[in-house]
Design a protein that fits this description.
This protein is α/β, with parallel strands linked by helices and about 450 residues long. The chain is built from 15 helices and 17 strands. Strand 6, helix 1 and strand 7 form a beta-alpha-beta unit. Helix 8 packs parallel to helix 9 and helix 14 crosses helix 15. It is globular and about 70 Å long.
């Protein structure tokens, strides 16, 4: 390990509140939190002046698609991890719909080995469910670096799809850990194709993949979880109807998440941004956005994610409905949410709860998500006093664009720290894009799930 570091005079966002003080890191762990400050640097320690900055736990994005292996022109584990670090994300969980799909132990081992050579952040991976791979799902239970099972109940990007009841029952009945499900009803999707196949206006996307389609699948997945006493996480919640239903029905077994873009965009943004805002499930309506905020604040929704799913602008340029669904977001999510906080939509402590502690709790990620002595020293120092306008050219993601281009955001990370090692900095060159300080594979490790 490094000799350690001391961060002095920052506003530390602790579990019980925000206090000014110092924090010491030793051997990759948070050694001392000193709310009154006064920590004196030791020989060999790196000293960071946190004056005017807020110190947060490193954020965790538990829903990304880094396209590795298979589509390096969109993203790979190196570029995705660099983008994450630039956004203050110190841990990510990657989805299985790659090429080939990650549906067995060999594929998961290959992903973990690849991340050890490419990543600059911590990492975990989902195994994808198919109609006949229960033995493969069982083979990775308890394996470091494997966070859970992903089920696509409705067609989305890629060819992973499990929607027949007998196959879903088999998976829920015969596996352990956590099942994360993309909850859209495949039968309803298929039945609605004739009604919408001639529409070329992007507003048709949310009409076709409608709220009823999502609610049917959410109810079905929840019933399976309760029938089989199985932990369930419903990914990328999009509608007020689902959020309201879960508020009364989720119980202890079920958790859920919301994407930053569903808290930020509505039908007007879709009209303005076009295919840049195309994703599955779709951006919905202003009333859904406000209801998602309400249910996030009351605890129905457990955490915030990005569903970072990059496609090239060239592939997007063919227009709706043939353009691929998905958008980048891993490097803008924390500044975006901190901007919402500075605008009075929530508090900075709320953002930490939803983007740091929340994902760690949902997935049982050991020693992550909070500024607590003895926890891993995954940290980000953010500037809440300066707004900066992001453009496509400021991004680290390989596709080189962002749906937030032209937006002024507050809360950009000045330092991103993984296990006590600075991996990204915006201090040295003064540019919004900042510098990746760490070399590929020099920081980060497979996450441990309890």
């Amino acid at each position: 390990m490094e000799n350690g570091l001391v961060i002095q005079n920052s506003m530390m966002v602790l579990p019980h509140g925000i206090v000014e003080g110092d924090l010491r890191v030793t051997d990759g762990l948070i050694k001392t939190i000193a709310p009154q400050g006064g920590l004196q640097p030791r020989v060999g320690e790196l000293v960071i002046d946190g004056t005017g900055l807020h110190l947060l736990p490193g954020a965790i994005d538990p829903h990304v698609h880094f396209r590795d292996p298979g589509h390096p022109e969109k993203e790979d584990l190196e570029s995705g991890s660099r983008a994450a670090a630039a956004g203050g994300i110190t841990s990510f969980l990657d989805m299985p719909n790659t090429l080939p799909n990650a549906t067995n132990r060999t594929a998961l081992e290959a992903k973990i080995a690849s991340a050890s050579k490419k990543a600059v952040t911590h990492h975990g991976f989902f195994i994808g469910a198919t109609t006949n791979n229960v033995p493969d799902l069982q083979s990775v239970e308890g394996m470091d670096g494997v966070c859970g099972i992903k089920i696509f109940m409705g067609s989305s990007t890629g060819d992973l799809l499990v929607h027949e009841q007998k196959h879903l029952e088999n998976i829920f009945a015969n596996t352990g850990g956590i099942i994360a499900t993309h909850a859209e009803d495949e039968n309803r999707l298929q039945s609605r194709i004739p009604e919408f196949e001639h529409r070329t206006d992007i507003a048709a996307h949310a009409e076709y993949r409608d709220i009823e389609c999502a609610l049917l699948a959410t109810k079905r997945a929840s019933a399976l979880a309760k029938d089989h006493d199985h932990r369930l996480h419903i990914v990328h919640l999009t509608s007020g109807a689902e959020a309201d239903w879960l508020a009364s029905n989720k119980g202890e077994l079920i958790t859920t998440e919301v994407c930053t873009q569903h808290l930020t965009f509505d039908q007007d943004d879709v009209e303005e941004l076009g295919v840049r805002a195309l994703m599955n499930p779709p951006i919905r309506y202003s009333e859904d956005k406000e209801k998602l905020w309400e249910r996030l604040k009351d605890g129905t929704i457990d955490c915030i994610v990005t569903d970072h799913a990059p496609h090239t602008l060239q592939s997007k340029s063919i227009g709706f409905p043939k353009a691929p669904a998905g958008m980048p977001g891993v490097e803008t999510s924390l500044p975006l949410m901190l901007t919402h906080a500075m605008d009075g939509k929530c508090t900075v402590s709320d953002v930490v709860r939803w983007m740091c502690a929340g994902p760690a709790k949902v997935y049982g990620i050991k020693n992550k998500g909070s500024l607590i002595e003895g926890f891993d020293a995954d940290l980000t120092l953010v500037d809440l006093e300066t707004s900066r306008t992001i453009q496509d050219s400021d991004t680290w993601t390989r596709v080189g664009w962002t749906p937030y281009a032209g937006r002024s955001l507050t809360g950009w990370p000045m330092y991103t720290i993984v296990d006590g090692k600075v991996v990204h900095s915006r201090v040295r060159n003064g540019e919004l894009r900042g510098d990746i300080v760490a070399t590929p594979g020099s920081a980060g490790r497979p996450l441990i799930f309890e």
